[in-house]
Amino acid sequence: MICYQILTPEHKTDILEFESQYAPGLPVYYRHSPDSLNSYIFKNKDGRAYGAFDGETLVGWAGYSLRKKGEYEMCGMIVHPGFRRRGIGLKLFQLRLDDLLKKPGAKSISATCYPANSPIIILYLTNGFVIYNFKKDYFGPGVDRLFLRYQPQKS
Ligand SMILES: CC(C)(COP(=O)(O)OP(=O)(O)OC[C@H]1O[C@@H](n2cnc3c(N)ncnc32)[C@H](O)[C@@H]1OP(=O)(O)O)[C@@H](O)C(=O)NCCC(=O)NCCS
């Protein structure tokens, strides 16, 4: 059974190890470092990360971060390749969104990803996000970025 829990600074090494093993496609300058994990999550004014555990083993993680007053960004969602397509990514997404929707001051919730990353794009688009921007060479030559934000359909 997969269990979910809030991650603490003690999990930093696990997260970095996990990211280097299971997201090898990410350019070095986009991977998290101990400092970026602090600024995005552990020392962020209102950041949080959730982990998915199979027993003691981290098999997925995802976080969010306060970027500016009222503006939150989802960051760093990865599921171990052997555990994908079992609903773990969706659960990690929902835990974050549930938190953020409860915050009275949250004016916007955004996310970014690679334009070719169809699994995450489909996950976001089927759960209330829309694409609002595309920036070419955002992280350097050939590393474009897609920008999404939460905008639920009005019924
Ligand atoms: C994106 C990722 C986190 C999804 O995790 P997951 O646990 O496999 O996702 P889930 O099983 O919860 O899938 C939820 C929904 O997302 C979509 N989805 C997930 N993987 C998909 C894929 N390979 N192709 C198309 N849609 C996909 C589907 O809509 C799926 O619902 P369904 O299974 O009912 O069709 C995982 O593929 C991953 O770790 N990718 C590499 C890291 C990464 O790129 N992270 C994003 C950084 S911005």
Helices, strands, pairings?
Blueprint: E1 2-6, H1 12-22, H2 34-42, E2 48-54, E3 57-68, E4 71-79, H3 88-101, E5 108-113, H4 118-125, E6 129-135, E7 145-150
Parallel strand pairs: 4-5
Antiparallel strand pairs: 1-2, 2-3, 3-4, 5-7, 6-7
Residues 23, 77-79, 84-90, 113, 117-120, 122-123, 126 line the site of coenzyme A.
Account of the 3D structure:
The protein is an alpha+beta fold and 155 residues long. It has four helices and seven strands, in the order βααβββαβαββ. The protein has a seven-stranded mixed β-sheet, sandwiched between helices. α3 links the parallel β4 and β5. The model has no long low-confidence stretch (mean pLDDT 93). The site of coenzyme A has 19 residues, from β4, α3 and α4.
Compact summary:
This protein has 155 residues and is of the alpha+beta class. 27% of the residues lie in helices and 34% in strands.
H/E series, N to C? EHHEEEHEHEE
Give the helix/strand class.
alpha+beta
CATH class of the domain at 2-109: Alpha Beta
Low-confidence regions = none
Shape: globular
Estimate the helix proportion, in percent: 25-40%
Return the CATH architecture of the domain at 2-109: 3-Layer(aba) Sandwich
- The chain-level mean pLDDT equals 93
What's the total number of strands? Answer: 7
At the fold tier of CATH, the topology name of the domain at 2-109 is Aminopeptidase
Bound small molecules, deduplicated: coenzyme A
| Tally of contiguous helical segments | 4
Descriptive labels:
155 residues, alpha+beta, Aminopeptidase, globular, binds coenzyme A
